[in-house]
Write a structure and sequence with these properties.
A 6-stranded antiparallel beta sheet has the order 1-2-3-4-6-5. Helix 1 packs parallel to helix 5. The protein has 155 residues and is an alpha+beta fold. The chain has one domain. The chain has 5 helices and 6 strands.
């Protein structure tokens, strides 16, 4: 048996992946997305109160109604600081929470399909990239939330 003097060829792969973005670039882009979404949310403060979520070491923002609200069938009838929307900067996405869709299926039906594709769970949208169309969809969804809360007398 003869040994070949040629080096073995590397196996060909069908799906070559491009190298991942450096973590610093990804974190920077998520920071920029958070900043843009923060500007959109803050347009609603006032009438909403601005606050931060009780999450350690995470950049966050929440908008709550100005006065505690008693939600029928929830919280034992006790008035609570009801959240309209929130943001949290996570490792791989910016979480955008829109609480009105949890309490009102009709509002959820009016949200754009592109935004609904990003919905993970009941109220959290995972935003990993942001363009003008998605910003407009988020602004429209917030406007629906504000309208819904006003109709209920909470704003």
């Amino acid at each position: 048996m003869r040994k070949s003097s040629k080096p073995a060829k590397p196996a060909k792969t069908a799906n070559r992946q491009s190298p991942a973005k450096p973590a610093a670039t990804k974190a920077h882009s998520l920071e920029a997305i958070y900043g843009e979404l923060e500007k959109i949310l803050l347009r609603h403060a006032p009438p909403c109160k601005r606050g931060a979520l009780a999450v350690r070491d995470k950049r966050s923002l929440e908008l709550v109604v100005p006065k505690p609200v008693a939600v029928p069938g929830a919280y034992g009838g006790k008035p609570v600081d009801l959240q309209l929307a929130a943001l949290i900067l996570q490792k791989d996405y910016v979480g955008f929470y829109l609480m009105c869709i949890y309490m009102n299926a009709e509002v959820k039906k009016k949200i754009s399909p592109a935004l609904l594709k990003l919905l993970k769970g009941k109220t959290c949208f995972h935003i990993k990239a942001l363009d003008e169309a998605l910003k407009n969809d988020i602004e429209a969804a917030l406007a629906l939330g504000v309208k819904n809360y006003r109709e209920r007398g909470w704003l």
